[in-house]
């Protein structure tokens, strides 16, 4: 579904170049749940931004369903984002002035969905994520976990094929994090959502079916969960992180 | 860093954030200073006898202006306090005392106010020169630039602004003192609730407000003082009732109609506006009230301007005019003796106005136009007198054939008289109409060249007609001075006490001076008020919009990530913006336009040359209001677009 090929990303001027991404390649199959891990500054968010078309790559190419996103015009990019991608951000990024229902419905409105069906679709998505009771509340009136579930609902309500999550549990307590990760697993398993999650938390990453490790902008390692239980996978991730060096205190 | 340095730095940043507010305060200070200059200018007060009342009128207007600017300052400081509550809360959190934070806020606002006042005074000096030039030109006194710095005007301006700022800051001081840290920190994230929650209550208030708006406007149109005051009160109720019930009703309207809410950009627009429901209703109503007052002041100012202009034009076309209904041959002798001795006359004439046999033309006009007649006969003039008068006034020559009569009338009667085609019978002569002239001809009062019109007939027709009144008219080399006119009036008064009839005396210079004084005393303050009202109202709208830039930017940044087109984002922003600026301007149009039209209709017939003149005056009032409003709108929109949708974004 997603094909990332030799992408590079540089920042800065001619005299002072920072290489944020260095020849990264990987594939994501439809229905996969992938985690990208790495310490702060390893290039995780830059990679996600490039895939989500918010940022552009300096070299290499990204194909989504065979389409090279670098070749799309501004309008096509906007259309691509609203039809194909769903976003879940660390700080939720819900609009304070909209209720949770309206925040979720916003994705449908932007996609020019039939206004008659918006409410029904939002209710369905909210029920699947267990936030139907809080739909008429404003973001500042609900908990972080509920906000993030609303963000997940917004990311999938318009039938988006790839959900990009940037540190989704970063602002949640452990209970709310666990709850959210289970919901994301359900979204992946039961609803067929393809999820690409950036995190530096090994516990969150252990919910994925595959984990990519980044270090200094390069792909350092890859772990596949296969039939292992989640706790076993979690410990394997910790082992790789130990190999990454220096950042162990940063990741648990 | 000391507290005062922090204050100064904040004040500088604040001036950048609230540039529009800062500019408006400078302009307000400049206007207040310039008009205070008029209050203390002896030169201008000496221009006319009526100019003595100018200081009082200006001071009274300034008090209204101070109240309005005071509201702006109070509103903006309270608004800044709310916007910066998180920052101020952080100061308290890190150990500053409430008193110190209040002092910090006080100091930086005082710094902004002082800077605005200083700049305003400098600009005000230039503005005063402009006002001085206009006033002098009204009185035909040559203008010479003289940079005058009136300490008294500065003092009075300072006094007004000290009152404004101390009141506003005292209120903020008290609010900061009583605030809790958590309240300060969470203040800016919450949405406001509807003011009136119950639907039935909302509907009742909405209907009552619309009704009171209609009744209030009708009462204003009656032009009766007690009814006008009641009308104004009803209009105030209408504006507040309408905006508060309307803004409270919007969320429930969309709640019940999700299909409308989720259509295009409606959701975003409606939620952005409804997030500030409580203040929005009140602010919109207040702005609308200010705009209504602006339109009424501006329209009245323009109509009075037209009135004074037409009055000075219509009062007399001669430099000196004396009319008397006395038929004594030597009635004008006393006047002429004085004139010969004291006034250099270029050309003069004595002539009579005659009584017609009937009042067929007067009746025709009375039936077709707004006209009050003064005579129970049509007034007539000899063709030879008419030709001589035209030549004296420098009007083109017009010949009258035998058996013809010509009409000379005020412009507003021209159409009716052109349509009049009946023959005129005088002394067994039957005369046919030969056309209409409308140059200025001293016809607005009863003993001029007819009242509104005169019929010019061949000399021989009037041989045995009775005289209505006699006139002495003169064109002079120099305008008749106030002293000379006074002396002539004294001669008239002495004649009057001797038991004769009361003569009418006009001098063009005196009429113009009177109009100029009335203009300065009535039109200046109305424009002054209108200008300040528009600026204050538009500033509050602009501050509201621009201070939301950050919130809008975050919102549009998210929308961009979610895949909204830039074109669609622009549309949403524009619609949001347009609703915000159009809403408060609509009710004033429905109240202001009928008021201006009705006030124009109340003037003496002939003051305005016709419906087109009235519509043009109304259009000018609207035009000048919207041109200032548009400057604020365009500035705000350009700035908002630059902040919220910066160009590089795709």
Helices and strands in order:
The complex is a heterodimer of chains A (252) and B (650).
Chain A: E1 2-12, E2 17-28, E3 33-38, H1 44-51, E4 59-64, E5 67-68, H2 74-84, E6 85-88, H3 100-110, H4 115-129, H5 144-156, E7 162-166, H6 174-189, E8 194-199, H7 202-205, E9 210-215, E10 218-224, H8 230-244, H9 248-251
Parallel strand pairs in A: 3-8, 3-9, 6-7, 7-8
Antiparallel strand pairs in A: 1-2, 1-4, 4-5, 9-10
Helix pairs in contact in A: 3-4, 3-5, 4-5, 5-6
Chain B: H1 3-17, H2 19-40, H3 42-45, H4 54-83, H5 85-93, H6 98-138, H7 151-178, H8 181-186, H9 199-221, H10 225-256, H11 258-261, H12 266-274, H13 277-315, E1 320-324, H14 333-342, E2 345-355, H15 360-368, E3 379-382, H16 383-393, E4 404-409, H17 414-418, E5 424-426, E6 429-437, E7 453-457, E8 467-476, H18 482-497, E9 504-507, H19 508-546, H20 549-562, H21 566-582, H22 586-602, H23 611-644
Helix pairs in contact in B: 1-2, 1-6, 2-4, 2-6, 2-7, 2-19, 4-7, 4-19, 6-7, 9-10, 9-22, 10-13, 12-21, 13-19, 13-22, 13-23, 14-18, 19-23
Mean pLDDT of chain B: 84
Amino- and carboxy-terminal Cα gap of chain A: 31 Å
Principal-axes geometry of chain B comes out as: elongated
**What about the largest sheet of chain A?**
6 strands, mixed
Structural class of chain B: alpha+beta
The percentage helix of chain A is: 25-40%
Q: Uncertain spans of chain B, ≥5 residues at pLDDT below 50? A: none
Report the C-alpha radius of gyration of chain A, rounded: 18 Å
Mass-distribution shape of chain A: globular
Oligomer: heterodimer
Q: Return residue spans of chain A where pLDDT drops below 50 for at least 5 consecutive residues.
A: 247-252
- As laid out across the biggest beta sheet of chain A, the strand order is 6-7-8-3-9-10
- As a percent range, the share of strand residues of chain B is 5-15%
Query: DSSP helix count of chain B?
Result: 23
**Share in β-strands of chain A:** 25-35%
Distance between the termini of chain B: 42 Å
Structural class of chain A: alpha/beta
């Amino acid at each position: 579904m997603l094909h990332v090929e030799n992408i590079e990303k540089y920042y800065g001027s001619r005299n002072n170049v920072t290489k944020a991404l260095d020849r990264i390649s990987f594939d994501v199959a439809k229905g996969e749940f992938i985690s990208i891990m790495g310490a702060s500054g390893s290039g995780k968010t830059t990679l996600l931004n490039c895939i989500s078309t918010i940022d552009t790559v300096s070299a290499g190419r990204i194909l989504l369903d065979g389409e090279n996103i670098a070749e799309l015009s501004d309008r096509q990019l906007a259309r691509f984002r609203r039809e194909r991608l769903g976003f879940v951000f660390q700080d939720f990024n819900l609009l304070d002035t909209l209720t949770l229902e309206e925040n979720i419905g916003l994705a449908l409105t932007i996609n020019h969905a039939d206004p008659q069906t918006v409410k029904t679709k939002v209710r369905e998505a909210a029920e699947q994520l267990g936030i139907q009771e809080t739909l008429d509340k404003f973001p500042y009136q609900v908990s972080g976990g509920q906000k993030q579930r609303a963000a997940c609902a917004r990311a999938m309500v318009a039938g988006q094929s790839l959900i990009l999550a940037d540190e989704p549990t970063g602002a949640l307590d452990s209970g709310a994090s666990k709850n959210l990760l289970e919901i994301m697993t359900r979204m992946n398993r039961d609803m067929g959502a393809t999820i690409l999650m950036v995190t530096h938390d090994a516990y969150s990453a252990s919910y994925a079916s595959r984990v990519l490790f980044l270090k200094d902008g390069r792909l350092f390692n890859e772990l596949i969960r296969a039939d292992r239980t989640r706790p076993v996978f979690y410990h394997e991730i910790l082992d790789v992180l130990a190999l990454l060096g220096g950042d162990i205190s940063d990741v648990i | 860093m000391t507290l005062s340095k922090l204050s100064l730095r904040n004040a500088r940043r604040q001036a950048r954030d609230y540039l529009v507010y800062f500019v408006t305060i400078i302009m307000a200070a400049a206007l207040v200073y310039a008009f205070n200059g008029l209050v203390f200018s002896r030169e201008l007060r000496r221009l006319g006898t009526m100019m003595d009342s100018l200081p009082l009128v200006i001071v009274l207007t300034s008090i209204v202006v101070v109240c309005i600017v005071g509201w702006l300052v109070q509103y903006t400081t309270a608004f800044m306090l709310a916007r910066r509550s998180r920052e101020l809360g952080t100061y308290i959190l890190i150990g500053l005392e409430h008193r110190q934070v209040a002092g910090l806020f006080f100091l930086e606002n005082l710094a902004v106010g002082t800077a605005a006042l200083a700049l305003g005074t400098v600009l005000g000096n230039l503005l005063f020169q402009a006002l001085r030039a206009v006033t002098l030109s009204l009185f035909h006194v040559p203008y010479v630039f003289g940079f005058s710095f009136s300490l008294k005007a500065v003092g009075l301006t300072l006094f007004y602004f000290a009152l404004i700022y101390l009141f506003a800051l005292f209120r903020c001081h008290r609010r900061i003192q009583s605030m809790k840290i958590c309240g300060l920190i969470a203040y800016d994230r919450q949405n406001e609730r509807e003011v009136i929650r119950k639907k039935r209550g909302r509907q009742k208030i909405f209907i009552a407000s619309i009704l009171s708006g209609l009744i209030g406007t009708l009462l204003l149109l009656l032009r009766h003082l007690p009814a006008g005051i009641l009308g104004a009160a009803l209009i105030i109720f209408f504006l507040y009732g309408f905006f508060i019930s309307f803004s409270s009703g919007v969320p429930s309207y969309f709640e019940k109609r999700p299909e409308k809410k989720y259509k295009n950009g409606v959701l975003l627009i409606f939620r952005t506006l409804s997030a500030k429901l409580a203040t929005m209703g009140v602010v919109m109503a207040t702005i609308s009230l200010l705009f209504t007052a602006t339109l009424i002041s501006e329209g009245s100012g323009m109509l009075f301007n037209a009135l004074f202009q037409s009055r000075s034009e219509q009062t007399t076309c001669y430099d000196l005019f004396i009319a008397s209904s006395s038929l004594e041959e030597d009635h004008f002798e006393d006047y002429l003796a004085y004139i010969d001795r004291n006034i250099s006359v270029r050309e003069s004439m004595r002539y009579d106005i005659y009584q017609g046999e009937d009042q067929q033309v007067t009746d025709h006009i009375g039936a077709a136009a707004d006209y009050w007649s003064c005579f129970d006969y049509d007034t007539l003039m000899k063709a030879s007198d008419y030709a001589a008068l035209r030549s004296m006034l420098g009007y083109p020559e017009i010949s009258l054939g035998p058996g013809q009569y010509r009409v000379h009338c005020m412009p507003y009667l021209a159409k009716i008289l052109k349509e009049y085609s009946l023959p005129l019978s005088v002394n067994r002569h039957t005369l046919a109409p030969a056309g209409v002239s409308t140059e200025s001809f001293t016809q607005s009062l009863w003993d001029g060249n007819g009242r509104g019109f005169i019929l010019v007939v061949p000399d021989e027709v009037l041989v045995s007609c009775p005289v209505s009144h006699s006139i002495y008219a003169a064109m002079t080399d120099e305008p008749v001075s106030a002293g000379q006119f006074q002396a002539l009036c004294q001669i008239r008064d002495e004649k009057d006490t001797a038991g004769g009839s009361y003569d009418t005396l006009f001098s063009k210079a005196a009429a113009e001076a009177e109009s100029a004084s009335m203009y300065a005393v009535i039109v200046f303050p109305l424009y002054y008020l209108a200008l300040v009202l528009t600026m204050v109202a538009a500033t509050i709208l602009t501050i509201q919009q621009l201070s939301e830039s950050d919130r809008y930017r975050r919102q549009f940044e998210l929308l961009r990530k979610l895949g909204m087109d830039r074109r669609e984002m622009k549309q949403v922003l524009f619609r949001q913006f347009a609703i915000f600026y159009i809403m408060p301007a609509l009710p004033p149009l429905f109240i202001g336009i009928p008021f201006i039209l009705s006030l124009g209709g109340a003037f003496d017939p002939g003051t305005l040359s016709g419906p087109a003149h009235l519509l043009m005056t109304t259009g000018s009032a609207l035009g000048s209001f919207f041109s200032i409003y548009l400057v604020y709108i365009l500035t705000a929109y350009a700035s908002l677009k630059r902040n919220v949708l910066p160009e590089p974004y795709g």
